[in-house]
Amino acid sequence: MFERILTLALNPSLDTTIWVDNLQLGGVHKAEDEMYDAAGKTVNVSRVLTYYGVSNQLILLLGEGNKRRFLERLNEGKVDYLPILVEGYTRENLSFVDDHGRMTRVMRKGFHVAYEDFVQVTQAVEERVDDKTLVMISGSLPTGITPRMLRTFCERVKKKGGTISLDCVDLSREDVTTIAPWVIKPNLEEFQALIGQEVTSRDQLVDQASRLVEDGVGCCLVSLGAEGLLCVDKDHVLLAHVPAVEVHSAVGAGDSLLAGFVRSVKSGLDLKKSVATAAAFGTAACMTEGTSPPHKLTVAHVLQQVELQELPRQPLEENK
């Protein structure tokens, strides 16, 4: 299906995690420990793919003001990257973890992207895309890049024969079905925002995912946290049940899940094995700190415990 992988980060971040005992609003606290990493959904995906030996190139917009710290982390992870520098600073997000393991996150605004910067991104991708290329787009859109601009970008990629993977929270259902990506990977909260309604049952979840597939999405992966992973395409409805694990950080787990799925498909595994492997990647990622890639032995151990269930496909209900 694809031989080359390009990952596109339009709004990356530097993620700092700080561990604090007895975190209280209005209090003064001493940091017990801290770590920072180059992050953002696509950056996380690229790092995991690289860690698992899958060749890919990260094309990213990067703030001129704090590029050194960001690139240091990419270099440590041996990520192949092409930065397109923009005026300002890459956003720096903060995560506070208390002594009960509860995480409080502060998501900062990113830089503003001038139209000329987005043109550079478009040109960089188009120069590298052919009919054996997967372009992975994940994360939020920075100010200056609209959903319409991203739709036009995806149309140009597809005209050159490229395949699209999409995990972008700022797109509407119409945007997503117009782009018609090979795969999407929302979590449950993002999925509900995408379809514009609360999901209250498994049948409803399957029905709405099936509608997205009917309207142009190739494969819908919905990460369900401790409840596992749902996969719906035109031929299958699969639910991967995952084992209970001790969660250190769920940040980036969905990105590891998507990387595991893409790696499996690229290596020639069938859909069922790819879904099971993706679920193992996502679960194992929760057992690491920050946004670090899941450990290989942990993935292998979790994969042995993943149970895959094939669900019956129900006729689509009308007017839903």
Describe the structure.
The protein has 320 residues and is α/β, with parallel strands linked by helices. It has two domains: 175 residues, Ribokinase (UDP-N-acetylmuramoyl-L-alanine:D-glutamate ligase), CATH 3.40.1190.20; 139 residues, Ribokinase (UDP-N-acetylmuramoyl-L-alanine:D-glutamate ligase, 3-Layer(aba) Sandwich). 35% of the residues lie in helices and 25% in strands. It has a ten-stranded mixed beta sheet, sandwiched between helices. Strands 3-2-6-7 form a four-stranded mixed beta sheet. Helix 1 packs across helix 8 and helix 8 packs antiparallel against helix 9. The chain is globular and about 55 Å long. 43% of the residues are buried. The mean pLDDT is 93.
Would you summarize the structure shown here?
The protein has 320 residues and is an alpha/beta fold. It has two domains: 1-175, UDP-N-acetylmuramoyl-L-alanine:D-glutamate ligase (3-Layer(aba) Sandwich), CATH 3.40.1190.20; 182-320, UDP-N-acetylmuramoyl-L-alanine:D-glutamate ligase, CATH 3.40.1190.20.
Fold topology:
Blueprint: E1 4-9, E2 13-20, E3 31-39, H1 41-51, E4 57-63, H2 67-76, E5 81-86, E6 91-97, E7 103-106, H3 115-126, E8 133-138, H4 147-159, E9 163-167, H5 173-179, E10 183-184, H6 188-195, H7 202-214, E11 219-223, E12 229-233, E13 237-241, H8 253-266, H9 271-285, H10 296-303, E14 307-310
Parallel strand pairs: 1-4, 1-8, 2-6, 4-5, 8-9, 9-10, 10-11
Antiparallel strand pairs: 2-3, 6-7, 11-12, 12-13, 13-14
